[in-house]
Amino acid sequence: MVLRGTDSVGRVFFDRGQIVSIDDRGARVHTRFHLKQGSEITVELAGEENHKLLRVVWSGEAGSFYDGVVGLEFADSDDSWNMENLRARWGARNY
User: Fold this and answer.
1) How many domains does the chain have?
2) 3-state secondary structure string, the chain?
3) 28 assigned to some structural domain
4) pLDDT score recorded for residue 37
5) Phi and psi at residue 45, in whole multiples of 5°?
6) Domain that holds residue 23
7) In angstroms, rounded to a whole number, what is the distance separating the alpha carbons of residues 65 and 76?
8) Which of 23, 56, 78, 83 is surrounded by the fewest CB atoms within 10 Å?
9) Of 33, 76, 83, 75, whose CA–CA distance to 57 is shortest?
10) Are the beta carbons of 30 and 41 closer than 8 angstroms?
11) For 29-62, how does the pLDDT look when each residue is reduced to its tens digit (9 = 90+)?
């Protein structure tokens, strides 16, 4: 996954983040950048043509187990991932 946006001190960044979890409303991702709640970032998933705009709604505390993990939700509540396509590509199962 590629993340693009502005970090908590106002610097424009590009990061190859890691998906922690993903669902219909957004995702939790690990990034090396500190992101401010409310900021919007562009997310690109490999193999997906459309980039998504998501908003930071949660950020793990520095020094905690969740340091570097952020919770993202779609900036447009009508937006979503193509979950069937993602499950097929990633070999994921429904639980």
Assistant:
1) 1
2) CEEEEECCCCCEEEEECEEEEEECCEEEEECCCCCCCCCEEEEECCCCCCCEEEEEEEECCCCCCCCCEEEEEECCCCCCCCHHHHHHHHCCCCC
3) yes
4) 94
5) -100, 140
6) 2-90
7) 30
8) 78
9) 75
10) no
11) 999 999 999 999 999 987 777 899 999 999 999 8
